Amino acid sequence: MSSLSERGARAWGTTRDWMPTVLKYAIPAFAVYLVLLGGLFVAMLQPPAVFGKIMSKLPAITYFLFPFKPMWLIARRGNLNVGDPAPAFTLKTLDRSQVVSLSSFRGREPVVLIFGSHT
Amino acid sequence: MIYIEEAHPTDGWEMPSNLKENILIASAKTFLDRDEAAQTCMVKLGIHIPSLVDDMQDSTERAYTAWPDRLYVIDREGRLAYKSKAGPFGFHPATVGKVLQTLVGKAQL
Question: Cys staple from B4: which of A104, A108, B50, B61, with CB 3.0 to 4.6 Å?
């Protein structure tokens, strides 16, 4: 009487039988995945308006198929490091009545910068 | 606060959550557009901290890689004491509090 494994091998074939078929499809699929992954990362490096336009065309599943968060944190890391001089700026206040320069706070008090928008 | 270009404008990467909450703002075409959006934001969210508006070249946003949102603390010497990870994942205001406590503590020593 043949063993269970021998009967299974006859029914389904051995690993050696179906592995080439799996690889035949898995390798190109993985290559396509890598290309899409690279494309998404390149998109993340684009200016926000360009990146936003690209993302508006992609399905929501993109967030689940690709490691979106770690890629985003790398792409948007920026060049500044703790200890670096803070880049200077002079910007208008909300009511446009005055301008404020970051340099005006030097020697006075720490400054917290909260960057964002309503959307 | 420094108001920068919209994260999810209606003419860009619009989010369902914004549609649901009726936060419908197109990309600013002029400084006035951005300023109006900033003022609306401050009123709707009840923000009373001093606020500035980035120029239409997005020069401050680019210098600080700030989009869509980010936090920084600058010490009295004008150096970066804290830089958050890119938003939205790295936007943790509680950490800013701890950094400020450290800076104030150092100043008192």
Answer: B61
Residue from B7, B5, B87, B66 nearest A78 by CA: B66
Sign of CA dihedral A54, A57, A60, A65: negative
Rounded to whole angstroms, the Cα distance separating B46 from B12 reads 26
Min Cα separation A49/chain B (Å): 7
The answer to whether residue A52 neighbours chain B at the CB level (below 8 Å) is yes
- Please state whether the predicted TM-score (pTM) of the whole model is above 0.90: no
A115:B61 CB<8 A: yes
CA distance linking residue A90 with residue A49, whole number of Å:
23
- Residue B92: CB atoms within 10 A of its CB come to 13
ipTM value: 0.94
Considering only CB atoms, B79 lies closest to which of A86, A100, A118, namely A86
Residue in B66, B50, B64 with CA at minimum distance from that of residue B6 = B66
Q: Which helix (H) or strand (E) holds B83?
A: strand B80-83
Per-residue pLDDT tens over the stretch A65-82: 999 999 999 999 999 999
What phi and psi values does residue B66 have, to the nearest 5 degrees? Answer: -90, -20
Measured in angstroms, the CA of B12 and the nearest CA of chain A are apart by 5
CA distance B49 to chain A (A): 10
pLDDT tens-digit map of B87-109: 999 889 999 999 999 888 876 65
> Which residues have C-beta within 8 Å of that of residue A22, sequence separation ≥ 6?
none
